[in-house]
Specification:
Blueprint lengths: L23 H9 L4 H9 L11 E3 L9 E2 L5 E5 L2 E6 L4 E2 L1 H5 L7 E4 H18 L1
Antiparallel strand pairs: 1-6, 2-5, 3-4, 3-6
The structure holds cyclic guanosine monophosphate.
The site of cyclic guanosine monophosphate has 17 residues, from strand 3, strand 4 and helix 3.
Amino acid sequence: AQLTHVTLTNYSKSEVSLRADPNRALLENDFMKHLEQGQIQTIVDCMPPTRLAQGCCVLQEGDNGSLVYVLEEGKVEVTKGGQKLCTMDPGKVFGELAVLYNCTRTATVTDRQGFQTIMMSNGLIKHFQY
Ligand code: PCG
């Protein structure tokens, strides 16, 4: 049997102001930089794959959460207070902020294909009303 130990660093909340939305790439780097390639591989290997329903809300701003996600395929949309922040492509890590800074989810993450589907059906309803 082989045991792998992963030590997670406890980041001080005062180090970073979450409201300021600090540089995303840096945060991702902060999350991964103290791990070796083999350790990252071990973590990724034991992450269960999850398929999202179209339009599915993966994370909801303000919720508690302890899971970190890696987007394998498709696109997700990130919103905060109803405002679109960005879309994320495969390979991106998300959901790490609540875990790193021990806070609630700082944004909402939604499956983008479904988001577009919702937008389209709203358009159709308008079309029928006028
Ligand atoms: P978390 O745990 O706060 O949940 C929402 C996630 O959205 C957040 O972690 C980030 O991983 C991700 N995200 C992607 N882009 C942004 C951004 O510009 N601002 C914020 N607050 N979160 C983002």
